[in-house]
Amino acid sequence: MATAPRPRTSTREPEELGRRLADWLDVRLPGARVTNVSVPGSNGMSSETLLFDIEHPDTPLRACALRLAADPAAYTVFPTYDMPRQHRVMSLVAQHTDVPVPRVQWLEADPGPLGAPFFVMARAEGRVPPDVMPYTYEGNWLHAATDAERAALQEGSISLLARLHDQFPSKEAEFLLPDGDGTPLRRHVDAQRAYYSWVVGGLAPSPLIERAFARLEELWPQDEGPAVLNWGDARIGNVIYDGFTPVAVLDWEMAAYAPREVDLGWTVYLHRFFQDLTVGFGQPGLPDFLRREDLERRYAELTGHTPRDMEFHTLYAALRHGIVMLRIAYRQAHFGEVEVPADPDSLILHHAALAAMVQGTYW
User: Fold this and answer.
1) pTM above 0.85, yes or no
2) Measured between alpha carbons, how far is 229 from 162 in angstroms, rounded to an integer?
């Protein structure tokens, strides 16, 4: 789908990681064997995942997944990777909700053993809607499903978000607030501004992203609503499904304390991102799946909270995603995979959609 090669995701060698992991585990479970070490084909461009099995008579944990902070040598997507924070979030979600999160086990904050902090969790079995090529494209299990099967997956997925927001005690999520002043939403946006400044430090800024920040101020909600625990990267590509039923919610590194609509806007827009790209490449995609109006309606039915100011929140999601896309593009340039064009806005795959949102013509 992209015009450039798939960006590299790591400079690490899985075999070497496996050897070092075995040495680390031997201290905790003497005599344990680490087997079947592999890197999933869907490994993302942020934190890395390593899959492995443990052979030892004294542990119920056999099939494992290891979440490793991004390789500092790989021009990281985010400036910091707080693995204890992710471990804490997942532990608390398991404690306070019925949202299915993998059972977390060991946390290693010392970067010495594997070169960066990491934690180990139980590995869930199932299937994940693909990102490359995206599930909106022909040729994958979700696209090939029936309308009824996709409707069941959509219902289960929006239920995850509703249950997380309703069941998790808001007070327990306050530790996720960024430093600064103002409301949770103001701090969240300020943190994104700081992230953008980091991304473009010493490089060409994006006029489009800066216009989007200005437009956010014009659309700022009069009533921001209560803050809750946000999953952060709330999309079906971060869920493992058994058939069409969610069995594991993954990737909590963007978890936040923010209004409900920050999560919901991300869910809505990240699907539209894939749908728009698919249509742009001449395929119909999945136009009746994960539609904004359906997600907002069903979320309101499940929670009693009617989503508000969604023009703001979908723009904010597209803006945040644009910053990430810009960072990934500059990362590709760093590794010599692409040339930086004269117009940095063209590095943002969804620049046309983001521009339309800024102008108020997208929806």
Assistant:
1) yes
2) 11
Q: What pairs with residue 256 in β-bridges?
A: 230
The C-alpha R_g of the chain, in whole angstroms, comes to 20
**End-to-end distance of the chain based on CA atoms, in angstroms?**
24
Distance (Å, whole) CA 5 – CA 8: 9
CA pair distance 292, 289, nearest whole angstrom: 9
Give 263-288 pLDDT, tens digit per residue. Answer: 999 999 999 999 999 999 999 999 99
Please give the Cα distance from 308 to 109 (Å, whole number).
39
Say whether 121 sits in a helix, a strand or coil. strand
Q: Which residues pair with 248 in a beta bridge?
A: 240
Comparing CA positions, the residue from 34, 42, 31, 37 lying closest to residue 15 is 37
Active site residue 233: yes
Q: Residues 137-153: pLDDT tens digits?
A: 999 999 999 999 999 99
Query: Among the residues of the chain, which ranges form H helices?
Result: 14-28, 83-96, 147-167, 184-199, 207-219, 260-280, 292-303, 310-334, 351-359
Annotated catalytic residue within 26, 131, 233, 242: 233
